[in-house]
Design goal:
Length: 316
């Protein structure tokens, strides 16, 4: 169709097409034959919750679920990631605005909403089992590709024991609305406001998770001192937080999340032929290295990773 133009997608099974309408305005067609419930129905349900709480998220114009697509509001092309890549951009200023938005997201009390099929969608809890299963993606894809069969079996047994202990060490409750992919590539500039996209994986989880996604973002490199400034600004805006418990959870969730990401990026390359994500893995190792050197809780993990991937950690 002449009025449809495919635009850059993401790591999901979705396709995005920009539609030019008769009034010269545009909308976005989100097409998803695979994982359709999550990518269309849940995506819109979470957007409804965000909009209900005065957080800018794409509005649904119409659904054709039986034909595998929905039509939503077009937020344009300007991500905060693109803005931050420009030399003269005041990065601190933008990150402070993002922290204010994150506080708003974390204050959401809604746990269910009617989806466009008029059924209740209840946001799931991010329990310890899910966190462990996600961390195991590192073993399922990266380890199996990089270690011998014998070493893989030994590594997996030890890795699972260590990650169980790390998850058991989390201090905060799972009682906060978590976007789960909260980073600058999913934040859009829309009429001088910040719009939030890619929200279909939202859960009720740990308060530190989204901040870890933002500060230890594998796609956007920042210095250690920059990370500390943003972390401290968040603490300043959340004075009632137990700082020690929060820092502990922030570091554990950052490391487990980035191990998961290495697994996911490897899977994208092997299974889906999306090899461009592999170039992000060295910086992901750098982030893991940064965190495991800061907290004694990572002693066993650091020993295991150093034994098998010393070069990856030392390069960084």
């Amino acid at each position: 169709m002449k009025n449809l133009k495919e635009i850059k997608g993401d790591a999901s099974f979705r396709k995005f097409l920009r539609k030019k309408n008769n009034n010269n305005k545009t909308s976005i067609i989100v097409y998803a034959k695979k994982e359709k419930f999550r990518n269309l129905l849940i995506y819109d349900a979470i957007n409804k919750i965000l909009n209900k709480n005065k957080i800018l998220a794409p509005i649904l114009y119409r659904e054709s679920y039986d034909k595998n697509y929905i039509e939503i509001q077009d937020f344009g092309n300007q991500t905060i990631f693109n803005k931050l890549k420009k030399k003269r951009t005041d990065k601190i200023k933008y990150f402070k605005k993002i922290i204010i938005l994150l506080n708003k997201v974390q204050s959401i009390k809604d746990r269910k909403i009617k989806n466009f099929k008029n059924r209740n969608y209840i946001i799931p809890k991010y329990d310890k089992k899910i966190i462990l299963n996600e961390a195991n993606l590192f073993c399922d894809w990266y380890i199996k590709k990089h270690l011998s069969k014998l070493n893989t079996q030994k590594f997996i047994i030890e890795f699972k024991t260590i990650t169980k202990k790390l998850v058991a060490n989390l201090k905060l409750k799972n009682d906060i609305f978590v976007h789960r992919d909260f980073h600058v590539s999913n934040l859009m500039i829309v009429n001088n406001q910040i719009g939030l996209i890619d929200s279909q994986d939202a859960i009720i989880g740990n308060k530190a998770y989204d901040l870890a996604s933002l500060i230890d973002d594998v796609r956007f490199e920042t210095s250690k001192s920059f990370k500390e400034k943003i972390f401290n600004f968040y603490l300043k805006k959340n004075k009632k937080l137990n700082k020690n418990k929060f820092k502990n959870d922030f570091e554990i969730l950052s490391v487990l999340r980035n191990l998961k990401i290495i697994g996911i990026f490897t899977r994208l390359a092997i299974r889906d032929g999306k090899k461009s994500y592999l170039k992000l893995i060295p910086y992901t190792w750098k982030l893991i290295s940064l965190r495991i050197n800061e907290n004694k809780v990572f002693h066993d993990l650091k020993t295991l990773l150093s034994k098998n991937f010393k070069k990856k950690l030392n390069e960084n």
